[in-house]
């Protein structure tokens, strides 16, 4: 877990804290596809007090995911280089009253900030919905299933526009 004690940052606004971590992650499911991480999440960044007890987290996250080509079903290893920027503030103001909610600020309790959720959100957003093994992937033959990247399959494909099917019925 990427939990950081930020007490020193709250006490001295000029303090900058380095964050470095490397964590293995379990597979996740997005859109019905299981996505495995083939490299750990390599996190390098800083936490800094930007005033008024607001802590800003700036980081770079590098990892690699294993996915399946959307056209030919081959395995694809996709490197991800992600930039994370998030602001955090205490749940309560210094006077003990609850802080006003802000859209761009995540709240934390006590002196611990859990960076895991923020990083996980950015990683999930960086994973493409569909991936290709190469830009010109030809996919699989819809009739016989042969990988068309390896050459033609010999199946006869009559390409017709389905919008003309109703008129075709009138001619026969």
UniProtKB/TrEMBL annotation:
- Name of the protein this chain belongs to: DUF177 domain-containing protein
Q: Which domain of life is it from?
A: Bacteria
What Pfam families does this protein map onto?
YceD
Q: What InterPro entries does the annotation carry? A: YceD (IPR003772)
